[in-house]
Amino acid sequence: MDYDQALGTAIARLHDEGRYRTFIDIERTNGAFPRALWRREDGTSREITVWCGNDYLGMGQHPAVLEAMHAALDASGAGSGGTRNISGTTVWHRRLEAEIADLHGKEAALVFTSAYIANDATLSTLRTLFPGLIIYSDELNHASMIEGIRRGTGAKRIFRHNDLAHLRELLAADDPAAPKLIAFESVYSMDGDFGPVAAVCDLADEFGALTYLDEVHAVGMYGPRGAGIAERDGVMDRIDIINGTLGKAFGVHGGYIAASARMVDAVRSYAPGFIFTTSLPPAVAAGAAASVAFLKTAEGQKLRDAQQRHARILKMRLKGLGLPIIDQGSHIVPVHVGDPVHCKLLSDMLLDRFGIYVQPINFPTVPRGTERLRFTPSPVHGPGDIEALVQAMDALWSHCALNRAEASA
């Protein structure tokens, strides 16, 4: 086999389909978010405004986070020194897990190197812990959940997105004595819609199932202390395992689960993805703990309120232009394009002509024909930033002769 040719064919296929992903070199400047420098290939640079970051609240540059990271770096050095089981458990990791457990009202928490690994490692390990486990998974669950669910022995059932009647039908068809788990998300980030958390918990109670809730796009963002949609809706105590990230609203890096002490102990003891992975650097753990602690406070609520306000304003302005906004009431602002080539072209023109950075979202992240631009306003995107984005989108939508709805009054 000509391996190099096979690689070339695979890459060419992505180009032909208009979904080849390109990265640009951006340099975030401390204290300037959402501004960044675009380092172009010709050696020049240009200031741009980042509109597609998942650092939803700007905590990646917050003084409380940076101070904690500096202190831990000076105290402990760069790396953790190994896996958690060898030498990679430090006071900083313990402190972070205590903050997370407190945030979610759980007995314990376990930190992983990413929320992807946390999902993959935990869901696959649950099959080992509960032989014959049947996992019921929302069809739009994240790839990390899908990977974890498909590993090992045991059945899986895919229910239509947020379709409680379908979920009930699947639960009712299986052996009542079989161990069961319902895996779903609180905020589905591509459309920005919410999972029916309380209603899923009702079904779990009825059929004796565990609940596994991915709150990755909700932690830090919702609830009085930023614990997510389950906190906002008053049902945290009904969720058996909560998955979250430290790399989005908390602005640092890493992922975690929060659950009962026995559940966490079992996952810690059995999950290869935890056992054999070097732990987070102490400075990262310290910064994440500081971020979680800060966003529990009234000052954190002010950031959440400002972010939601800016998201509402941006949606209203884009809707007024007749642009096809997907508005599900969350902090995420997707604009439907429906074609990978057009989506990439719009992204390129926004960057080149207006200094606005937003990456195109194409297959396989979203289904073919639903390609979109996904904007994530933050508390520090000011009125001028919103105005510049709205004007740029208006001009490019006309330039590309894309369809509009009638502008709302």
Structural write-up:
It is a single chain. The protein has 409 residues and is α/β, with parallel strands linked by helices. Helix content is 42%, strand content 16%. It is built from 14 helices and 16 strands. The strands form four sheets. Strands 4-12-11-10-7-5-6 form a seven-stranded mixed beta sheet, with helices on both faces. It has a four-stranded mixed beta sheet with strand order 1-2-3-14, covered by helices on one side. Helix 5 links the parallel strand 5 and strand 6. The chain starts with a helix and ends in a 10-residue tail after the last helix.
Write a short abstract of this structure.
A hairpin with a 5-residue loop joins strand 2 and strand 3 (45-50). The chain has helices at 3-16, 63-76, 91-104, 115-129, 143-150, 164-173, 197-207, 229-232, 261-270, 272-275, 282-295, 298-320, 340-354, 383-399; strands at 25-28, 35-39, 45-50, 108-112, 134-138, 156-159, 180-185, 187-188, 193-194, 209-214, 241-245, 255-259, 333-336, 356-357, 360-361, 372-375.
